[in-house]
Amino acid sequence: MTLHALLDRLDAVRARGHGRWSARCPSHPDRTPSLSVTEGEKGILVKCWAGCTLEQIVEALGLNIHDLFYDRPSGRRTNRPDLIPHPPDWRRQSLDLLAHAEALRLRAERVFEAARGLDITGWSDRDLDEALRALAWSYECCEQATLLEDVAFTIRHRWLHAKRSAR
Protein backbone atom coordinates (compact mmCIF):
# COMPACT_ATOMS: atom_id res chain seq x y z
CA MET A 1 0.00 0.00 0.00
CA THR A 2 1.23 3.47 -0.78
CA LEU A 3 1.21 6.27 1.72
CA HIS A 4 -1.33 8.27 -0.27
CA ALA A 5 -3.65 5.26 -0.54
CA LEU A 6 -3.63 5.06 3.26
CA LEU A 7 -4.14 8.81 3.69
CA ASP A 8 -7.13 8.65 1.32
CA ARG A 9 -8.81 6.24 3.77
CA LEU A 10 -8.51 8.67 6.68
CA ASP A 11 -10.50 11.76 7.71
CA ALA A 12 -9.23 15.23 8.64
CA VAL A 13 -5.76 14.57 7.22
CA ARG A 14 -3.27 17.39 7.74
CA ALA A 15 0.39 17.61 6.87
CA ARG A 16 2.61 18.03 9.92
CA GLY A 17 5.96 18.39 8.23
CA HIS A 18 8.01 16.43 5.73
CA GLY A 19 6.72 12.84 5.63
CA ARG A 20 4.35 13.32 8.61
CA TRP A 21 0.57 13.67 8.83
CA SER A 22 -2.16 13.66 11.45
CA ALA A 23 -5.71 12.38 11.03
CA ARG A 24 -8.73 11.21 12.98
CA CYS A 25 -8.21 7.70 14.29
CA PRO A 26 -10.64 5.31 12.57
CA SER A 27 -10.82 2.91 15.51
CA HIS A 28 -12.49 5.25 17.99
CA PRO A 29 -14.81 8.28 17.80
CA ASP A 30 -12.14 10.91 17.33
CA ARG A 31 -13.14 14.57 17.39
CA THR A 32 -9.63 15.94 17.12
CA PRO A 33 -6.94 14.17 15.10
CA SER A 34 -5.04 11.81 17.40
CA LEU A 35 -3.55 9.52 14.76
CA SER A 36 0.02 10.16 13.59
CA VAL A 37 1.03 8.84 10.18
CA THR A 38 4.72 8.91 9.30
CA GLU A 39 6.59 7.78 6.24
CA GLY A 40 9.07 5.22 7.51
CA GLU A 41 12.12 3.60 5.94
CA LYS A 42 10.41 0.25 5.35
CA GLY A 43 6.76 1.18 5.55
CA ILE A 44 4.09 3.45 6.95
CA LEU A 45 4.12 4.11 10.68
CA VAL A 46 0.84 4.81 12.48
CA LYS A 47 0.26 5.67 16.13
CA CYS A 48 -2.90 6.67 17.95
CA TRP A 49 -2.08 9.01 20.80
CA ALA A 50 -5.42 8.18 22.43
CA GLY A 51 -4.21 4.61 23.02
CA CYS A 52 -5.64 2.50 20.19
CA THR A 53 -3.43 -0.43 19.23
CA LEU A 54 -1.98 -0.91 15.77
CA GLU A 55 -4.21 -3.96 15.33
CA GLN A 56 -7.34 -1.91 16.12
CA ILE A 57 -6.31 0.84 13.69
CA VAL A 58 -5.58 -1.43 10.71
CA GLU A 59 -8.71 -3.50 11.40
CA ALA A 60 -10.86 -0.35 11.35
CA LEU A 61 -9.30 0.51 7.98
CA GLY A 62 -9.98 -2.99 6.61
CA LEU A 63 -6.26 -3.72 6.32
CA ASN A 64 -3.64 -6.07 7.73
CA ILE A 65 -0.45 -4.97 9.43
CA HIS A 66 1.64 -6.30 6.53
CA ASP A 67 -0.20 -3.87 4.21
CA LEU A 68 1.72 -1.02 5.88
CA PHE A 69 5.10 -2.33 4.74
CA TYR A 70 6.67 -1.45 1.40
CA ASP A 71 8.29 -4.92 1.19
CA ARG A 72 5.34 -7.26 1.51
CA PRO A 73 5.78 -10.84 2.73
CA SER A 74 3.96 -12.10 -0.37
CA GLY A 75 7.10 -13.63 -1.84
CA ARG A 76 7.91 -10.84 -4.25
CA ARG A 77 9.98 -7.92 -3.14
CA THR A 78 8.69 -4.45 -3.93
CA ASN A 79 10.66 -1.29 -3.58
CA ARG A 80 9.42 1.74 -1.79
CA PRO A 81 7.16 3.60 -4.20
CA ASP A 82 8.06 7.02 -5.45
CA LEU A 83 5.65 9.48 -3.96
CA ILE A 84 3.56 11.01 -6.70
CA PRO A 85 1.77 14.09 -5.46
CA HIS A 86 -1.97 13.78 -5.72
CA PRO A 87 -4.03 16.77 -6.73
CA PRO A 88 -5.31 18.59 -3.66
CA ASP A 89 -8.78 17.74 -2.40
CA TRP A 90 -10.28 21.25 -2.56
CA ARG A 91 -13.55 20.18 -0.98
CA ARG A 92 -11.77 18.66 2.04
CA GLN A 93 -9.51 21.69 2.42
CA SER A 94 -12.48 24.02 2.30
CA LEU A 95 -14.37 21.99 4.90
CA ASP A 96 -11.30 21.81 7.16
CA LEU A 97 -10.94 25.60 7.01
CA LEU A 98 -14.62 26.08 7.82
CA ALA A 99 -14.38 23.69 10.77
CA HIS A 100 -11.34 25.54 12.11
CA ALA A 101 -13.12 28.88 11.67
CA GLU A 102 -16.14 27.57 13.57
CA ALA A 103 -13.92 26.35 16.43
CA LEU A 104 -12.22 29.77 16.65
CA ARG A 105 -15.57 31.54 16.68
CA LEU A 106 -16.97 29.24 19.39
CA ARG A 107 -13.94 29.82 21.63
CA ALA A 108 -14.26 33.57 21.19
CA GLU A 109 -18.00 33.49 21.89
CA ARG A 110 -17.38 31.63 25.17
CA VAL A 111 -15.00 34.37 26.29
CA PHE A 112 -17.47 37.09 25.25
CA GLU A 113 -20.31 35.36 27.14
CA ALA A 114 -18.16 34.99 30.25
CA ALA A 115 -17.20 38.68 30.10
CA ARG A 116 -20.77 40.01 29.82
CA GLY A 117 -22.12 41.48 33.03
CA LEU A 118 -18.95 41.05 35.08
CA ASP A 119 -18.52 43.34 38.06
CA ILE A 120 -14.91 44.50 37.80
CA THR A 121 -14.96 47.06 40.62
CA GLY A 122 -12.81 44.93 42.93
CA TRP A 123 -10.36 43.73 40.31
CA SER A 124 -6.66 44.48 40.44
CA ASP A 125 -4.84 46.05 37.51
CA ARG A 126 -3.29 42.68 36.78
CA ASP A 127 -6.73 41.00 36.63
CA LEU A 128 -8.03 43.73 34.33
CA ASP A 129 -5.00 43.40 32.03
CA GLU A 130 -5.50 39.64 31.82
CA ALA A 131 -9.22 40.02 31.06
CA LEU A 132 -8.51 42.62 28.37
CA ARG A 133 -5.87 40.34 26.80
CA ALA A 134 -8.45 37.53 26.70
CA LEU A 135 -10.97 39.81 25.01
CA ALA A 136 -8.38 41.06 22.51
CA TRP A 137 -7.47 37.43 21.75
CA SER A 138 -11.17 36.67 21.21
CA TYR A 139 -11.53 39.52 18.73
CA GLU A 140 -8.44 38.25 16.90
CA CYS A 141 -10.03 34.77 16.77
CA CYS A 142 -13.14 36.27 15.20
CA GLU A 143 -11.03 38.07 12.60
CA GLN A 144 -9.11 34.88 11.85
CA ALA A 145 -12.39 32.95 11.56
CA THR A 146 -13.70 35.48 9.05
CA LEU A 147 -10.48 35.23 7.05
CA LEU A 148 -10.63 31.41 7.06
CA GLU A 149 -14.26 31.49 5.96
CA ASP A 150 -13.35 33.82 3.09
CA VAL A 151 -10.51 31.54 2.01
CA ALA A 152 -12.77 28.47 2.25
CA PHE A 153 -15.40 30.23 0.14
CA THR A 154 -12.78 31.17 -2.46
CA ILE A 155 -11.43 27.61 -2.58
CA ARG A 156 -14.94 26.18 -2.90
CA HIS A 157 -15.86 28.72 -5.59
CA ARG A 158 -12.73 27.96 -7.64
CA TRP A 159 -13.23 24.21 -7.21
CA LEU A 160 -16.83 24.45 -8.44
CA HIS A 161 -15.76 26.69 -11.34
CA ALA A 162 -13.00 24.23 -12.35
CA LYS A 163 -15.46 21.34 -12.09
CA ARG A 164 -17.96 23.11 -14.36
CA SER A 165 -15.22 24.07 -16.84
CA ALA A 166 -14.08 20.42 -17.06
CA ARG A 167 -17.50 19.37 -18.38
Can I get a quick summary?
The chain is built from 4 helices and 4 strands; from the N terminus they run αββββααα.
Describe the structure.
By secondary structure, the protein is an alpha+beta fold. It folds into two domains: 66 residues, no CATH class; 77 residues. Helix content is 49%, strand content 12%. Strands 1-2-3-4 form a four-stranded antiparallel beta sheet. Helix 3 runs antiparallel to helix 4. The protein is flat and about 70 Å long. The two termini are 32 Å apart. The mean pLDDT is 85.
Distance between the termini: 32 Å
> Could you say which overall geometry the principal axes of the C-alpha atoms support?
flat
Query: Which structural class fits the helix and strand makeup?
Result: alpha+beta
Largest sheet: 4 strands, antiparallel
**CA-atom Rg in angstroms:** 22 Å
Please report which band the strand proportion falls in: under 5%, 5-15%, 15-25%, 25-35%, 35-45% or over 45%: 5-15%
Unreliable residue runs: none
Overall pLDDT score: 85
Strand order of the largest sheet: 1-2-3-4
Order of helices and strands: HEEEEHHH
Q: Name the helicity range.
A: 40-55%
For this structure, the quaternary state is single chain
Number of strands: 4
Total domain count: 2
Number of helices: 4
